[in-house]
Please model this.
Amino acid sequence: MNKRLEGEYREFIYKGEKTPFSPGTLAVMIFCTVLLIAATFTRLDISYYWPDFADGLNIVIKKYGLIPQIPVVLFVSAVLGARYGIIVILFYLITGFFIWPVFALGGGLEYIKSYFFGYILGFFAAIIFSGKILYHKYDIKNMLYAAIIGVLSIHICGIFYSFILSFFNFSTYA
Model:
C-alpha cells in the first residue's frame, strides 16, 4: 500500500478535516450491533436450589431463563460511550424494523405497538446515562452507579411506555 492510501486509511478526511471516527470505531460499532442481536436470541438457563415446604422440607431445583441483552447494552455504553452507543442502538432498530426480525417477539414496524418496545426505547436512555457517567472516570464506584442507572432507566422507560399503550389501547401483543 502506498503512503497516500495508507494515510487515508488511517484517518478518514472529509472536507479537509479529520472525521471523529476511524474504521476501527466503525468495526467495533458493527461488532457491538451483532453482539446485541446475538444476545437477544441467547438464553442462559440458571439452575438454583429452593426449599419447598408443601410436603415437609424438600429442596427442589428451579430454573431461571436469563437473556443477556441488558448487560450487552451496558457493555456497549462502556465501550463506545454515549455518542457511538446510540448509533449501535439505531443500527439494531433499523435491523429489527426493516431487515430481520431481531426483537424478542419478531420485528417490523408493527412492533412499535408492542409493550416490549418501550424497553428497547429504554436502551437509548441507558446508553446516554451510563455513557455520560463512565465518560469522566472508570472506577468500580462509577461502573456500579452506571449499571444501576442504566438498568433503572430501561425499566422506567419500558413501564412508562406500557402504561401509555394500555391507557390508549394501542397494543397488539399481550
Q: What stands out?
A: The longest strand covers residues 44-52.
